[in-house]
Amino acid sequence: MLSAFVRDHSNCQLLPWILQCEAADYFNVSLAEVEEAALQQGILPARYQRNRQAISASDQLILFRSSIAVIGCGGLGGYVVEELARLGVGRIVVIDPDVFEEHNLNRQLFSTPANLGRAKVEAAAARVSEINPAVTLTAIQEAFSPANGGELLKGCRIVVDALDSIQVRLELAEVCTTMNIPLVHGAIAGWFGHVTTQFPGDTTLQTIYRSWKGGKGVEQTLGNPSFTPAVVASLEVAEVCKLLLGQGVPLRDRQLVIDLLAMEMNIISILKDA
Asked: Looking at domain 66-269, which of 3.40.50.720, 3.40.50.20, 3.40.50.790, 3.30.70.930 is its CATH number?
């Protein structure tokens, strides 16, 4: 029996990777099923042992059973997907219509010369299968829109905004409110970025972008170096983890503003219906 095998072969409440693979082969089950069998008994797959001072085995099970949608798989989205997979989120839905181009090489994690012309979501799926095969990545090479949003986000607990279009971000916020899903939003431009979380019924993004009149965002002018998306994506993933586990204080009605030139982070309160 799988559960007994996992229990009998764990060491200090840890299940080594080699035994996780052995169990999957012997019982003809997926690595995800082995991981769940371990976590249900309070046994951590050994890959997560450095998590356990901050994230318990029961917390890890919550992460494993969660489904997160990441909209956009470029600068922000690549880092978000990588970190969610390493964190142990069990299902990640990645939505992006684009392929890699040469100008992506300076900052997008899954962008390599060999991947030029390859679908970004396809590269994300390949990467996740390498770093954590127990995670299920659903790759959707489509553009998000209000028309398909309901179907794309079905079953997801949280949505992460890694878009580069203000118009689509606002549409995404509306769909998330309709579906009663929290939205973790991040944006970057040059040395600067911000992160916030919009809960269903809030108007956080509408308030942040109330002065927007159309066209591209400020990142088109300021550009994006390699480090800004990594910083902002990490903050988004931390916010997702807190929301899933019900820990800490979320960035609801608050905007965390990052200035890497001055090495300053500030919190701005967002007044409802401002």
From this structure: 3.40.50.720
